[in-house]
Amino acid sequence: MDCHSPGQGLMPASFKVRTVPLDGDDSATEEVLDPDFGEAAIGRVAPVDSGKLFSCCLYYYFVFKVSPFCTTGLWWIILLRAYGKCSGDLSVKERVDVQTGIKMILKLCLADGFDMFPTLLVTDGSCMIDRRMGIHGHPLEIQALFYSALLCAREMLAAEDGSADLIRALNNRLIALSFHIREYYWIDMKKLNEIYRYKTEEYSYDAVNKFNIYPDQISPWLVEWMPEKGGYLIGNLQPAHMDFRFFSLGNLWSIISSLATIDQSHAILDLIDAKWNDLVANMPFKICYPALEGQEWRIITGSDPKNT
């Protein structure tokens, strides 16, 4: 945008097919893809997970043999492994350009920064929920996809001397990320009672309330809604902020990828069963519970009608 470009390893937010004349033959034409890396996207949002686009990209790559984009997303790694497992065709992941793409994504995601946490820091609207919903920071959906993509990348990366440092960083991040999500994103009745007893403004290496969460931040609806049996992974966590909303994709993908422990996975399913009328009822599984209403909806989403 303007004079700034994102780092390599990003997948297009969208793309269009453009017909151009062949070099040296004005009577013949060919179709080329023009990728958009967020420069033309609504709100100029960077596509962190690139989930909405990926089926189209796979179609163009495997049907028309279009060269891979080299700038890819978390879903690209996950579906690349799935394609190899389902088809038995391992030649795609072994290609030099595909291996290069995997490394570019990992370098982008594992780059050092100012963040103190192993989770990925992203802006609001950078994932499946592509409009503002107050999920800026470290949303669960992105962390679950990040964890799954790291596992898939570790399996597909070719063992060579040039990849040793990258694989070492990948393994370290997997350990730190899984502990962080399982320990700090988890909420059940026991954890809820612990938060109520938190001391605040603790300056210590041994502080229990590491994120300086104020008990008053606990939403009134949560106390009444949380069942005695069951729990879930909260939607977001950062200093002085816990988003207690239930996000279905993040929790379900955490089960699929084993980011959640076995006990946590069972507890999530127990909660879904106990709160079936709230989360499913007569409609497909809700993306988020509870929904935003009234002034909260207007302030957080910017009165975006897509979120009604």
From TrEMBL:
Gene3D superfamilies: 1.50.10.10
The entry's keywords: Carbohydrate metabolism, Glycosidase, Hydrolase
Enzyme class: hydrolase
Protein EC: 3.2.1.26
Catalysed reaction equations from the record: Hydrolysis of terminal non-reducing beta-D-fructofuranoside residues in beta-D-fructofuranosides
Organism encoding this protein: Cinnamomum micranthum f. kanehirae
Signal peptide: none
Name by which UniProt lists this protein: Alkaline/neutral invertase
Coiled-coil zones: none
Protein's job: Invertase that cleaves sucrose into glucose and fructose.
Protein family per UniProt: Belongs to the glycosyl hydrolase 100 family.
GO cellular component: chloroplast
UniProt record, GO biological process: sucrose catabolic process
Recorded GO MF terms: endo-alpha-N-acetylgalactosaminidase activity; sucrose alpha-glucosidase activity
A Pfam family: Glyco_hydro_100
